[in-house]
């Protein structure tokens, strides 16, 4: 396997991981909408924002 193939495989893995994380984020958002009456935890919100930033950076690369 050549270096080009290795880089392409790694890129595809990262893209798949980003898609999975985005799907998880959407699912969490849906669950969050179902629990609107409950106060949101600031720490979990911060972690979700950081996670989304990482996903956005993966797509920018």
Descriptive account of the structure:
It is a single chain. The chain has 61 residues and is mainly α. 84% of the residues lie in helices and 0% in strands. The protein is built from 2 helices and no strands. Helix 1 packs antiparallel against helix 2. The chain is elongated and about 50 Å long. The mean pLDDT is 82.
User: Compute the gyration radius: what is it?
Assistant: 16 Å
Order of helices and strands: HH
Largest sheet: none
Structural class: mainly alpha
Runs with pLDDT <50, length 5+? none
Could you tell me how far the N terminus lies from the C terminus, measured between alpha carbons in angstroms? 23 Å
User: What is the 3D form?
Assistant: elongated
Outline:
This protein is mostly helical and 61 residues long. It contains two helices and no strands.
Layout: helices, strands, pairs:
Elements: H1 3-34, H2 42-60
Features:
61 residues; elongated
